[in-house]
Specification:
Length: about 100
């Protein structure tokens, strides 16, 4: 495994570990998701450059577009949660109560 592959795998796994183990605030979960998407975007961009093929050059831009949509939906949920519950702590959210 090259150092570049190790670095991107490590950043993705650190984002995944942060998402799995540090679930106190919704904002921290969104930041972990964005870190995972950023590592995927850079890894996919470098992979497309390494292959020197125009067929794979649109894949990083498509991932970036989906990542932007995910970020906007997450921020909208964060604002809605903060307005209705007064906090972004995930312990205050109850799925059984609307």
């Amino acid at each position: 495994m090259t150092p570049i592959h190790f670095a991107f795998s490590t950043t993705f796994l650190l984002g995944l570990a942060g998402l799995a183990f540090h679930r106190t605030h919704l904002l921290s979960a969104l930041l972990c998701l964005e870190g995972m998407m950023l590592s995927l975007f850079i890894a996919l961009s470098l992979w497309a450059l390494h292959l020197d093929s125009t067929n794979f050059s649109t894949a990083p831009m498509l991932l970036l577009a989906f990542s932007a949509c995910e970020a906007s939906a997450g921020l909208a949920l964060l604002v809605a949660t903060a307005r209705t519950h007064g906090t972004d702590r995930l312990q205050s959210l109850n799925l059984l109560q609307c």
